[in-house]
Design brief:
The structure holds 2 protein chains of 2 kinds.
Chain A (H helix, E strand, L loop, with lengths): L1 H11 L3 E5 L9 H5 L3 E3 L4 H13 L3 E7 H7 L1 H9 L6 E5 L17 H6 L5 E3 L4 H11 L6 E4 L19 E2 L6 E5 L4 H13 L4 E5 L2 E3 L3 H10 L2 E9 L4 H11 L6 E6 L9 H8 L3 H17 L1
Chain B lengths: L2 H20 L8 H6 L1 H11 L14 E4 L5 H10 L39 H14 L6 E6 L6 H12 L5 E7 L8 H4 L5 H7 L3 E6 L3 H9 L9 E6 L22 H11 L16
Parallel strand pairs in B: 1-2, 2-3, 3-5, 4-5
The chains are: A alpha/beta, B alpha/beta.
Chain lengths: ~300, ~280
């Protein structure tokens, strides 16, 4: 469990402090366990980030929690100016990112958080697929001396992770030559279903769990571009600035001729509902992803 | 404070003002805001802060965060007079080969953090103060904000949080020069009664004259004002203090002057006639 993990790390590392802007869902049991090393500033995201920078100036490793939308947008300039310019090792953890905001509505939908965070020099971005990966990755990130944005996701394990976590390394979950399916976060489990459905109908799929979007595993993307007929990015983020953009930048800068199809939110917020209904309505269940990919792939394979 | 001590601080502040005026040439600087807090910075660095050129990285030093940012020529001048940086380095103002530009940055020894975007360093100072308390240390954290900067919501967020955290190692100093970039503060977003606002937010608060070393000594010797509470010092100052030709002038926030005008300003600083400025007014904000 995430909070048990933080407690264990805090025992081993006396510099670790856990902070929150009164977002305690993932931290409920920590206040009595960490004592003064648990700092809740109240609903004050700007002060949360600025104070985290101050703590980092003094040698602390602050892990600062707030809802992803408010952390990355309300406090954006504090992240960019206080953490980013000084390259302080502040770890920002954004809760209920992307589709995980479910029925909260567009105010709470962080669908541009990756675009914003990756645009800050020195900032890194980690998008765990589930709780196992969250904890594996956090162990590395808390030892790293750079600032990080973590798209918090403590879902039940999406897959059996056999590739040890490494910063900047994707996890290749299957090999394939027809379609490369690149994804991250809570949609990995849906993409795994989609891959199985596609495989069952004779389409071979390279399923790639990106893990960190900055630094990104360029080699995994370049290999996929060279080895497969179609690259598909799947993400609960706006099409602009997320993984689809990252892949487009990489293949363009390397002058690779590829077919790239981006499944993401296009210029609108998603319909607020519980997660299964959001996935269905917006076309991101395994079945819907497989069907959308078949629609793109079929005309390509005829030619 | 003895008359001798006041004379020594006044002489130091005069030299800092000379540095500020010199920085008006070759591109200019935010001279009005710099002159208003020159005495405050000289007083704090000379008489209050437990920090020295040899102790800029000492974890037990007192911290001063200059949040208002654009008054950094006063800080550069103070740091030069106290030996944190070589006085000769001030000639590098705005030169690309050095880091002495319009806002503070940590490449200058003694500058604790970069600023320029208003409303940031109270939050950063809260983090530093929290860590000092966590470690059980006795150093204090000072933050200088402009009065116009009190328009920023993040200031009041920080004022609430600092009180909630009972940060009695934190001192906020308001350079109350009654102007923001283009207008008198009370004409745009009235701030008074400032002292009552801080008290209502759970702070100890005290007013002082930010150009009178005796008065500042009386105020800062009382810090902390109340146990368990952060302290706010409202330092009444005059924008452009020392140069009657630009004092309290909304259009002399930023001055870019010729070498000849700088020479005239220098005479004015030392009691000569007021300068009639002919350079273009430059509005940076």
């Amino acid at each position: 469990m995430y909070e048990h993990f933080l407690y264990e790390i805090a025992q081993a590392n006396p510099d670790l402090v856990v902070m929150t802007a009164e977002n305690r869902a993932a931290l409920r049991n920590l206040p009595p366990m960490l004592g003064p090393r648990f700092i809740d500033v109240g609903i004050a995201e700007q002060t949360l980030v600025g104070a985290a920078a101050g703590l980092a100036l003094r040698g602390r490793v602050p892990v600062a929690h707030a809802l992803a939308a408010f952390l990355t947008m309300r406090a954006f300039e504090f992240i960019r100016t206080d953490v980013g310019i000084a390259r302080l090792p502040v770890k920002l953890v954004g809760a209920i990112p992307g589709f995980l905001s479910e029925a909260n509505g567009p105010t709470h939908q962080a669908l541009e958080d990756i675009a914003l965070m990756r645009g800050i020099p020195s900032m890194n971005v980690f998008c765990p697929a589930d709780e196992v990966e969250l904890i594996d990755g956090m162990a590395h990130i808390l030892r790293d001396d750079a600032p990080w944005y973590v798209r918090y996701n403590a879902c039940t394990p999406a897959v059996d992770h056999r590739t040890p976590f490494a910063i900047g390394r994707a996890e290749i979950l299957s090999e394939g030559i027809d379609v490369a399916l690149l994804t991250y976060g809570c949609l990995l489990s849906q993409c795994r279903t989609a891959a199985a459905l596609l495989e069952a109908s004779g389409v071979s799929v390279r399923l790639i769990n990106m893990r960190t979007l900055k630094p990104v595993d360029e080699q995994a993307i370049v290999d996929a571009a060279r080895d497969t007929t179609l690259l598909v990015t799947v993400e609960d983020h706006f099409a602009s600035g997320g993984l689809g953009t990252i892949v487009a930048e990489i293949v363009a800068s390397r002058q690779l001729a590829v077919r790239l199809h981006r499944l993401a939110m296009e210029e609108r917020w998603f319909t607020p509902a519980l997660l299964p209904d959001v996935l269905e309505r917006e076309g991101f269940t395994g079945e819907r992803i497989a069907a959308r990919i078949r629609g793109v792939l079929a005309p390509l394979q005829k030619t | 404070m003895t008359a001798e001590a006041v004379a020594s601080l006044s002489a130091r502040a005069l030299r800092v003002r000379e540095h500020i005026i010199n920085m008006c040439a070759g591109g200019g600087c935010f001279v009005g805001a710099s002159l208003s807090c020159a005495d405050l910075l000289v007083y704090l660095y000379s008489s209050v802060l437990r920090v020295s050129p040899a102790a800029v990285s000492d974890p037990y030093r007192d911290y001063l965060f200059l949040s208002k940012g654009h008054d950094v020529p006063a800080l550069y001048g103070t740091l030069a007079e106290l030996g944190f940086i070589d006085r000769k380095r001030l000639a590098n103002h705005l030169k690309p080969h050095d880091s002495i530009y319009w806002h503070p940055n940590r490449a200058i020894p003694g500058v604790e953090f970069h600023s320029g975007s208003l409303g940031h360093l109270l939050a950063v100072a809260i983090g530093v103060a929290l860590d000092i308390r966590l470690r059980g240390d006795a150093n204090r954290v000072f933050v200088i904000v402009g009065d116009g900067e009190l328009n920023e919501g993040s200031i009041w967020e920080g004022v609430l949080v600092a009180a909630a955290q009972k940060l009695d190692n934190l001192v906020l100093v308001v350079d109350r020069n009654e102007f923001q970039a283009n207008l008198p503060t009370e004409e745009l977003v009235p701030l008074e009664p400032i002292e009552a606002k801080f008290r209502a937010f759970g702070w100890g608060a005290w007013r002082t004259d930010g150009h009178d070393f005796d008065a500042m000594e009386r105020a800062f010797r009382r810090v902390l004002f109340e146990p368990g509470r952060p302290s706010a010092v409202i330092a009444h100052t005059v924008r452009g203090k020392g140069l009657p030709s630009i004092e309290r002038r909304a259009d002399r926030w930023f001055v870019s002057a010729s070498r000849e005008e700088v020479a005239h300003f220098m005479e004015e600083l030392h009691g000569g006639a007021a300068v009639a400025m002919t350079s273009d007014v430059r509005i940076v904000r």
